[in-house]
Specification:
alpha+beta, Beta-Lactamase, 7 strands, globular, 5-stranded antiparallel beta sheet, 2 domains
């Protein structure tokens, strides 16, 4: 892939994440001031589509990313977000605030992740029989899930998580895993992506953190949040205050 194609692909994905709409060449050139003509961008769209990174709805001239396009975006174009000291301190404050409201670690962590990502967040701990979830109403408001069939995809992911919880939490995962759409090894869904990681808690138990959202989710931010929250949870509570 050429540098120009990389620029056009990553810019298109960021715009699609922002709007949930197919993206046209003129929008990219005008909004992001790309140094290419709309005709050049359209030509690159065609090449990127032929290579499997983009597709387009039959009723629109704009393009949307494929799972392959998102995978390239995650693997090559996005580095894990580096949180500033003030952002880490804010996360610490949020965890402490929720500790005062919710006694269960999994419940408060799920609520924090859901609030920060705007997606469905799930947290569980070994030696328990269930996990806690938060953020489902917000996820259902995303335009991708206005169709009943896509809502069923969310239900299928939750069922798979319930079935494979012990398997997921058993293996230590230091860097979040990203399953884009049909990449998910537990259940194949086209429009739902899942991020997950684990953390080793001071109690000796292991925690599992999961974020479920549309393939259009903000991967860079969500990956960084999972990493940072997992590391905070591994610290003794006294060190987080």
């Amino acid at each position: 892939m050429t540098q120009r194609q990389v620029k056009i692909l990553t810019t298109l994905i960021r715009e699609h994440i922002r709007t949930a709409e197919p993206v046209g060449s003129l929008v990219l050139v005008e909004r992001y001031r790309l140094p290419y003509s709309p005709a050049t961008v359209r030509s690159e769209f065609a090449d990127l589509e032929e290579a499997g990174f983009l597709t387009h709805p039959h009723t629109s001239a704009g393009r949307v990313p494929t799972s392959q396009g998102y995978r390239y975006f995650v693997d090559e174009s996005i580095q894990s977000r580096r949180f500033t000291r003030s952002e880490v301190e804010r996360l610490q404050e949020d965890l402490l605030r929720l500790e005062a409201q919710y006694h269960l670690l999994a419940r408060r962590t799920a609520k924090l992740l859901a609030a920060l990502t705007g997606n469905l967040a799930i947290a569980g701990v070994t030696n328990t029989e269930e996990f806690h979830e938060a953020g489902l109403p917000a996820l259902l408001e995303e335009p991708e899930f206005s169709a009943a069939g896509r809502v069923r995809d969310i239900s299928r992911v939750l069922d798979a998580l319930d079935e494979h919880f012990d398997e997921m939490i058993r293996e230590p995962i230091r860097e979040p895993r990203v399953y884009i759409g049909e990449e998910n090894p537990y259940v194949r869904t086209r429009h739902v992506s899942m991020l997950l990681t684990t953390c080793d808690l001071p109690s000796g138990e292991r925690g599992l953190l999961v974020v479920i959202g549309p393939t259009r989710m903000r991967y860079d931010r969500n990956i960084g949040l999972l990493e940072q929250i997992a590391r905070l949870l591994e610290m003794p509570q006294g060190e987080r205050s």
